[in-house]
Amino acid sequence: MWSCPLNGTGGEDPLPCLHLQRALSALSLLYLLSGVPLGLGYNALLLLANLHDPGGMTMPDVYFANMAAAGLLLCALAPAQLLGPGAAGGAAWDPGSEVHVSLPVLFNVAALVALYSAALLGLDCYIERALPRTYMSSAYNTRHVCGFVWGGALLAGFSSLLFHICSHVAARLVECARMRDAAADDAIMLLVGYLVPGLAALYALALLARVRKEDTPLDRDAGRPDPSAHRLLVATVCAQFGLWTPHYLTLLGRTVLAARGKALDGHHVGTLVLAKDLSRFLAFASSAVVPLLYRHLDRNFPGKLRRLMKKLRRGHQSCSPDQAGVQPVTA
């Protein structure tokens, strides 16, 4: 599953690497057996419970539904990513194959959607808290914002797809090779995918903390928001950025090492690869953590789930045959 790049040469002891490799493999199997089904189930329930009544969705519900869609995408990618290329052993994992190109692109799309949704959730909650009568952060506007988030995330992965298309043109192989720069890709994803939403989330949390300390006339008129909603917001933002930060720190490390231009020995390469594997595992774990937070901290979710179950039961009963209207056939 996870591969240990250390081979014991150069006086390095491979045992710590092998122990960490086994620990990562055990955590990956545990996540695939429990975390992926849990994430698929709760993300699907979150989406269905909110989408079956679009008129009843609030602004936070739209953002959580958006994060649930990204979580479903991560759960779908988890088996192929966590099992690793070495487990497949087929031609589909060739560096020039469609699978090798599409998996990182979809992973980056899910990462961008998850972090930008969390950051925008914090900013819109501040707007709703500070200006409660403007309707700037309505559910209608939020749906359009989420559409732009998905569109921007797809455009961010366009460069990888462009290189893959270009690599199939034999006459342009040299130009395609010049276009590909892994360090530049890492730097762009670090800036666009983490620093921008991270600063926005910190700014939103600081504004919310300041507003909660002030008692303005708008506060007395509109009333304080539900404390559970604030706890859900803070827990979601902290969970998303806390679980995704190691992934972007590894991108930062790879970018710095590439900028220095120095070759790494086997020990440092092994450390970097294992750090990348561990950070990827934490990133996939966010797909199960966020819907669980929504399930336990959102007071309206149990009611939405009960209404969804009643609607499904009514639909099932309407499709069942009417036993009372069946007349026996006599000879």
Could you describe the 3D structure shown?
- The chain is an all-alpha fold.
- The chain has one domain: Rhodopsin 7-helix transmembrane proteins (Rhopdopsin 7-helix transmembrane proteins).
- The protein contains twelve helices and no strands.
- InterPro entries: GPCR_Rhodpsn (IPR000276), GPCR_Rhodpsn_7TM (IPR017452), GPER1-like (IPR047143).
Quick description:
It contains twelve helices and no strands. The chain has helices spanning 15-51, 59-83, 85-88, 98-130, 139-156, 158-167, 173-179, 182-213, 217-222, 227-260, 266-297, 301-319.
Percent in strands: under 5%
From the N-terminal CA to the C-terminal CA, the straight-line distance is 69 Å
* CATH fold field value: Rhopdopsin 7-helix transmembrane proteins
Total domain count: 1
Most strands sheet: none
- For the record, the CATH architecture stands as Up-down Bundle
Structural class: mainly alpha
How many helical stretches? 12
Q: Could you tell me the number of beta strands? A: 0
- What Rg, in angstroms, do the CA atoms define? 24 Å
Task: Give the % helix.
Answer: over 70%
**What is the name of the CATH class?**
Mainly Alpha
Q: Which keywords apply here?
A:
single chain; 331 residues; mainly alpha; Rhopdopsin 7-helix transmembrane proteins; 12 helices; 0% strand; globular; GPCR_Rhodpsn_7TM; GPER1-like; G protein-coupled receptor 146; cell membrane; transmembrane
